[in-house]
TrEMBL record:
Species of the source: Nguyenibacter vanlangensis
PANTHER family, sorted: 2-HYDROXYACID OXIDASE 1, S -2-HYDROXY-ACID OXIDASE-RELATED
Gene3D superfamilies assigned: Aldolase class I
Family stated for the protein in its record: Belongs to the FMN-dependent alpha-hydroxy acid dehydrogenase family.
Domain (FMN hydroxy acid dehydrogenase) ranges: 1-381
UniProt-listed Pfam families: FMN_dh
One example GO MF annotation: oxidoreductase activity
EC number: 1.-.-.-
Taxonomic path: Bacteria, Pseudomonadati, Pseudomonadota, Alphaproteobacteria, Acetobacterales
Recorded superkingdom: Bacteria
UniProt keywords, alphabetically: Flavoprotein, FMN, Oxidoreductase
Cofactor(s) needed by this chain: FMN
UniProt-recorded name of the protein: Alpha-hydroxy acid oxidase
Length: 382
């Protein structure tokens, strides 16, 4: 049974654990943060119509994501610098996920280098998220490193040609200054447990990037990396990756149905509809709002995942009923990681699993196919 009672509670625990500049980096969004809130509101607009008589107590929510069978339709989203939330955080998160048969997508901006993650976690449970850098030699090197590690799913994120202002980061001097300041130290002094652990930990830089000389400390790297992402990428780059990457190719961050159709034509295996958790285009729609249009456009060969604002098992069931292959979760597991390391992530996954199962039972849906077949009876947008 999950030890946690809600993601909101876990968020508070993370706030009490992390120095303010780090919590705000994790928790915040761009400008007014309206998209951050919209993600949650849009999910709550879908309401269930219960179907209780004849319900089955043990629903089956197995589904295939990125070519792998999973017990629950959830993947851990790439979260940059997750290893700052807890020492070796990327390893802890991926290990907790693999322990429950769930895949984790490692961020390009991982504190623990991928070579070290695959020593601890079966790469079959891992995907690697790539940003296309202006420097194509670095980009190519990163892609080969992922493949050489035995990772066969590449998730290329395309929604970050620029990084808009994130007010909380700007206020805290994170990602715009290149050294630790008195203000950061003040935040750390009131979080002695985190600070003590971080001081003893090995990873104090974005270890995945260390070899490319983008700054000698975390603050310098954090200030540089957004500028390294190529703002001019287009379909040529997707075509290039499709031609060179022998494994499954996933594009993350599209929202326009035309783009999904084009990705399908180019042989992209899966899409993640996403507004980057409300951290990019402020005022953007939530992915769930455009899910059905994108499914229609992409055709049946493409898997379509969604992310942004998923906080309950009920949210996951809504997305799957609407036709999503699965859901990525970002902040929920990151809060768990900050609050309680590997166990915290395992608890979050367990919490989602229990929520998904009870929801399916209350909808009288024995499996995902039944849920989709009865979508009009079971779901209303109000
Ligand atoms: C702290 C933080 C860092 C993130 N870093 C990345 C990243 O490096 N690459 C990426 O593709 N998405 C990144 N994202 C976006 C997530 O992959 C995901 O799209 C988003 O968190 C989903 O929304 P949710 O947090 O409401 O679940 C990040 C999100 C957060 C909160």
């Amino acid at each position: 049974m999950a030890m946690i009672v809600s993601v909101d509670r876990l968020r508070l625990a993370a706030r009490q654990t992390l120095p303010r500049w780090l919590f705000d980096y994790l928790d915040g969004g761009s400008y007014s943060e309206s998209t951050l809130h919209r993600n949650i509101a849009a999910l709550s607009e879908w309401r269930f119509v219960p179907q209780v008589l004849g319900a089955l107590p043990q629903p089956d929510v197995r589904s295939s994501i990125f070519g792998r069978q999973q017990d629950v339709p959830i993947v851990l989203a790439p979260v940059g610098m997750a290893g700052m939330l807890s020492p070796d955080g990327e390893i802890k998160a991926a290990r907790a996920a693999a322990g429950q048969g769930v895949q984790a997508c490692v961020s390009h901006f991982s504190i623990v280098p991928i070579e070290r993650i695959v020593q601890a976690v079966d790469p079959d449970f891992l995907a690697f998220q790539l940003y296309i850098f202006r420097n194509r030699d670095i980009t190519r090197d990163m892609v080969s490193r992922a493949w050489d590690c035995g990772i066969h799913t590449l998730v290329v994120t395309v929604d970050t040609p620029v990084t808009p202002l994130r007010e909380r980061d700007a206020r805290n001097g994170f990602r715009n200054v290149s050294r630790l300041s008195g203000r950061h130290i003040a935040h750390m002094m009131v979080r002695p447990r985190w600070t003590f652990r971080a001081a003893r930990a090995k990873g104090r830089t974005i270890g995945n990037l260390d070899r490319y000389g983008m700054g000698s400390n975390l603050f310098a790297q954090a200030a540089t990396i957004a500028r390294e992402i190529d703002p001019h990428i287009g379909w040529d780059e997707i075509r290039w990756l499709r031609d060179t990457w022998k494994g499954r190719l996933v594009v993350k961050g599209v929202m326009q149905p035309d783009d999904s159709a084009q990705a399908g034509r180019l042989g992209v295996d899966a899409l993640v509809l996403s507004n980057h958790g409300g951290r990019q285009l402020d005022g953007a729609v939530a992915a769930i709002e455009l899910l059905e249009d994108n499914i229609k456009a992409a055709g049946s060969v493409t898997e379509i995942l969604v992310d942004g604002g998923f906080r309950y098992g009920t949210d996951v069931v809504k997305a799957v009923a609407l036709g999503a292959t699965g859901v990525m979760i970002g902040r929920p597991y990151a809060y768990g990681l900050a609050a309680d390391g590997e166990q915290g992530v395992a608890d979050v996954l367990d919490y989602f699993r229990q929520g998904i199962l009870s929801t399916m039972t209350l909808l009288g849906a024995p499996d995902i196919a039944a849920l989709r077949d009865n979508r009009d009876r079971l779901l209303r947008n109000l």
